[in-house]
Amino acid sequence: MTQAEDAKIGDVVDRSDMVCIIGAGPSGLAMARALKARDIPFNHYERNEGIGGLWDIDAPGSPMYSSAHFISSKTLSGFSEFPMPDDYPDYPSHDLVLAYLRDFAARYGLDEGIQLGLGIDQIDKSDDGTWLVHRADGVSVLYRAVVCCTGAQWEPNLPPTPGSFAGTVMHSAAYRDARDFVGKRVVVVGGGNSACDIAVDVSRVAARTIISMRRGYWFIPKHIFGVPSDVFAEHGPPMPKWLEQPLMAWILQRLYGKPERLGLQRPDHKLFETHPVLNSNLYLSLQHGDIIARPGILGTDREEIEFVDGSLEQADAIIYATGYRHSAPYAQDLFGDSQHPNLYLTCFSREHHNLFGGSFTETNTGAYIQFDTTAMMIASYLDDQSRRPDVAARFDRLIKADKPDLSGGIKFDSSPRHKGYVDGHAFIRYRAKLSKQLGWGFKDAPVISGRRTSPLAAAGDGRVAR
Ligand SMILES: Cc1cc2nc3c(=O)[nH]c(=O)nc-3n(C[C@H](O)[C@H](O)[C@H](O)COP(=O)(O)OP(=O)(O)OC[C@H]3O[C@@H](n4cnc5c(N)ncnc54)[C@H](O)[C@@H]3O)c2cc1C
Fold it and tell me: Per residue in 255-264, pLDDT tens?
């Protein structure tokens, strides 16, 4: 949907019958497909020269690293109607994920509509409720709605290092591979997926590798009884969380032992209460002594690092894998909290009509199915504004007042990372209920082939994306 334009710096172009999508990563691509399927006109902007979002390791500022693989399995990670290829491994590498995203864009004819290399600097709300989008080329464009699909992992959260550490300090966002750490003494800080991956990676070449965690976490291997862990969990009999949590914890501890045996701290929360960490290599590296576990850093003195248990290590580098802030610098005043914007169903601004966040869903399932159906909800609502204004008005009231419990019975951790966090299955169930109530016509469900219907296929109204 690229339009030929002869606009100059300072011009304001009126496209107030169109929607603006910012960002061409997975969420932006899902959004473009959903709008296209409903014949809703839109413009799509991407500041980088290629599509694929953070999966493009060459994109400036991408947090991707060479050894990164999916942490959700290919079976449960594809977009609806477009599963990941059969010949992909269970957990594809970042370059396979990028190839998949680009194939997806080509398959649905999304790529030709994306204006690459054109970022958005600022968005402002006009008095008449339209959105003025200021592009990096100096042109401003009026749109009826803006969908911000600009990701949530571009602004590193880097804590200060206490004391006078004299070595290299970096965030995992800047880490690409282990080659800078050959023969070095390295401390990796964090207990999430990136921290575990990077510690394992570095330990293959470093003189000594420490992983420092402030608390204990649960680590889930990538396979359980020979199948990807998310597939194993999905295919088991449905059970309430109060039963599933201790049962899965019991299975993990019987199969892999208690984390305390390997020097890790005992988890201070129940399984699933924090974002899942999927890693089969960390335990092996700890078992081999290639990685040593330590608690949080208390202080530093030149090359010496003291941990809260009084242990000391000499180190040349600290890599902080301490996560990201969900910033949207071009619209931060509109989204408020930079740690996690408070949006209805993780995507609808409650204060600003027709402002949507497509990238802010934090959940315990693969992200793409959530992006997909989030995009379908947004597209259905925009469609209703033209075709079924009474239904759109009904949904407007829900945006303002509806506060569903999307925890799925899990008491998510109180850390900033888990603010706004939702249980993927509770989210799916609630969207399916809304879709039925509002006549949106899609059945929201994950894409396990043969097990559940896909949302697009279920639309059944001729609006299936091509
Ligand atoms: C190491 C790692 C592993 C992961 N593993 C998984 C996994 O296994 N499964 C899973 O489901 N998720 C995983 N994720 C989560 C990841 O967030 C999603 O896979 C996905 O990339 C997020 O998609 P997105 O489109 O929201 O954001 P992004 O992929 O970040 O894309 C956002 C796009 O917006 C563009 N953009 C930003 N600002 C502007 C602007 N002002 N103007 C124009 N364009 C702009 C960016 O250049 C980028 O292309 C992982 C993340 C990381 C970092």
Answer: 888 889 999 9
